[in-house]
Design brief:
This protein is of the alpha+beta class and 80 residues long. A four-stranded antiparallel beta sheet has the order 2-3-1-4.
């Protein structure tokens, strides 16, 4: 098994910038159903939040490709 990670910048288009946006993103996001979970989150100097999500999977390339259909990803990593 491998670990796939992806970084998403919040707020997403159409998402309100609030102090609780990471929590709302974690609760409401469709990726949570697909087995992804929040690994970390940090604020940037511009007030955005970078959220790193991860998933243990057998085929990380296809999982990342599916995620790209729904979110603009800042970065992705596959850990052996």
């Amino acid at each position: 098994m491998k670990i796939a990670t992806a970084t998403i910048r919040l707020p997403l288009p159409g998402m309100e910038r609030t102090p609780h946006m990471v929590k709302a993103f974690g609760v409401e996001a469709p990726w949570k159903v697909a087995g992804w979970g929040i690994r970390s989150a940090r604020h940037t100097k511009t007030g955005d939040v970078l959220v790193v999500i991860e998933k243990v999977c057998a085929n990380p390339d296809s999982d990342i490709a599916e995620l790209r259909k729904h979110y603009p990803l800042e970065a992705t990593t596959i850990i052996e």
